[in-house]
User: What shape does this take?
Amino acid sequence: MYLQKYQSKIVSAREAVKVVKSGDRVLLHANSCYPELLVNAMCDRYQELNDVEVAHLTIFQKPCYLKPEMQNHFRHNALFTSGHVRKAVNEGTADFTPVFLSEIPLIIERGILPIDVVFLHVSCPDAHGFCSYSVSNEVTKTAADHAKVVIAQINHKMPRVLGDNFIHVDKIDYIVECDPDLIEVPMVDPNSTEEEKKVYRKIGETIASLIRDGDTLQMGIGAIPDAVLTYLTEKNDLGIHTEMFSDGLIDLIDKGIITGDRKTLLPGKIVASFVIATKKTFDYIHNNPIVEFRTTKFVNDPYIIARNDNMVSINSAIQVDFTGQACSDSMGHKIYSGFGGQVDFIRGASRSRNGKPIIAMPSTAKNNTISKIVDTLTPGSGVTTSKADIHYVVTEYGIADLYGKTLRERVKQMISIAHPNFRDELEQKAREFKYLW
Ligand code: COA
Assistant: This one.
């Protein structure tokens, strides 16, 4: 039925992107669904285009629209700042929008971030004409639902991932057939030196001590969440409700440690919005009914998250001050990443019955020369997680349990998990600020 329509929409990438006009906002499918053919074809037209905004979440390829000669023709809007766009954001040649991952769909729906054109990279249609958003649903489904024009690269190598994760061919305006391999991203390996290995091992073990059989887990982005997975082999019946996951989960599913049997929301399902992973995970989630992908409007909604009893969220930070304010997206004024789903999950886990929101990080950065626990956040650092939101902070020196505690109690606990080289200095500052006396 849909085949005729499908055939009639097939064009070259060059043809398809002719629809982009000066002043448009184009949203790109993110992560391993980066629609490179379409982006390159749009960049080829740069001299005909001015002030085209290119918005997206994390990508793993160097985008052509950031080339110096394309300034003024294209301007990037980072909804999360990944490595390839960080320099441009911090040099002022690209923009950054601070926003909760759960609320990006809302700003699209409410017309605060209207989308003119969306570039997708989706799976082939099934027998009913539905293409899967594959390994990356996040905010792209919402963007496609609201965009004026939808252009899709259709790739038979894209896994068909189940959930509220499909677009019908009828809703696609232009189709570009292609077959590139998916971009693979292995788990973060924090183990560059023996000392770092020890630190991450200790943090992983400590977090594992906070996790109980039957808990439902969210794992954020970075080295810590990846490290924790290694220490969960003695647990039973864990469940997953997370915006993102990596290869480490697959081993735990294979070993029968993750079953989802005790989940109170969508039991048995791995609820997620995207993966940052390799072929191992892509193959595993293809057509697999245990996986339920939805937009971050659902997955990251703190009220939805809280419907999971025993929800444990594990995220990391760049700096935490000794009252419990965490900065996770910048180093001073220099933007490093974004809000992502950190606050969404901290709030959701906080409201969950027996929930535990955790922020974990090594106590120091740069070979023990910088304390990540500070008396005052570096000027320019924004508060990602507020001191009223924070619960557990974990370093290699232990756990600070700050929720509902006074400033005095917090400061004492935070100093006790700081690196010993910095504790005296922190204590002196605490006395100066009259938190201790
Ligand atoms: N001062 C100076 N440099 C610091 C620092 C500090 N306080 N803290 C970290 N760094 C440096 C590290 O040394 C490292 O430098 P390198 O790349 O030169 O080695 C770099 O910053 C990254 O630090 P690292 O600890 O390796 O980061 P990570 O990959 O584990 O990620 C966050 C940690 C906080 C950046 C990441 O979790 C994040 O972006 N969080 C916000 C969003 C979020 O939590 N989302 C939830 C899921 S979407």
